[in-house]
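Mods, move this if it's the wrong board.
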Amino acid sequence: MGVKGIVARLATGRIHVFILEIPGHLMLRMQVEASIAARGWVLAEAPADADVLLIVGEAPDAFIEIADGVWNQIPSPRHRTSVAAVAAISETLDAVPAVLRDEQQQSRDARQRPQHVIGGSAESEHSDGSDSSGDGHGDGAMDMEGMDMGMDMDMSGPAGIPLASGDESDRDGLEMDIIHLTLGPVLPDWPAGLVVHCTLHGDVIGDAAMEFLPGTGTNKSLDAIPAGLPAGPTTRAAMLCDAAGYLLAVAGWETVALKVRRIRDGLITGNAPEQMAVRLSRVYRQLERSRTLRWSLAGIPKAVDIGARTVLLGWLESAAAHLAEGELEPDGSVWPASLEDVRTALLGQELSVARLIVACVEPSRIAELSGAVHG
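Not the wrong board. Structure tokens:
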């Protein structure tokens, strides 16, 4: 067996899938993630760590360009595919290992990769996977060069990182105090289609602009559940667990996030709701009693009354109530009423807090908050 064959077999031992979710296909994405977990595969955190680019939903033109940019960052052996219906998930995923092991197809793909100039000569970005580590993945660094995602991104600095610059409002009179940074739309544990353009003063957000890239579907809760998924309170509980999993992952609680996501997977794949309710109750008690969680989610942000811990526990309480088909008591929260509320909450916050604030918004609400209308 040649080197390429060895790399291909290592890559298919535990396949890493990078998901590009098209807005309006949240329920489909949840089902895809459940199927990936059932196979023992892994959700990739970045394109450089992926074997597969999986587009979930029908991609409009704006997302085709984004997908192309992500695809160019994935090392060989690799596979690009899409799924637009629940019924097609199994067939789509079943085909992946054979494609990754197909040496002829992978060689053709390697020859077609974009070229770039290094030291005056054109070289392939990847050559037969030789720049990958032993498990078929890169070093985790994401080269954003050439990845135009339809946004105003300043890529003038070293390695595509925009250089800071000063303006008349610099606090200390020194230049190198202002930097422009775009968050989204391709980030792990990030709402589909959301883009935040930040102006940073050091590591503090001085200004922000919110943008939503609409997709082809609709996230209108239970009115648009794809065929093959259970409807009613169980699905709503799964959506709340999905949101809680996002928030826990962003907060750095990957182990508990995985527990919550496994509960979500059980709910949407037909496991007994009573069994999932017991597991959910155990996780809730663990989080409610955790001093570490209380500390890690406390005190953000100061501008408005958003309690990340309260939001998290509230989602899980509501999920439990849906599973018990009990009465849901209104929590009195009105935040956020629009993406403008989210933008305002980001102002004056450190960049490290920005993703936590965004994670306090249920992903299924992003399209509604943006005022976008989907067909």
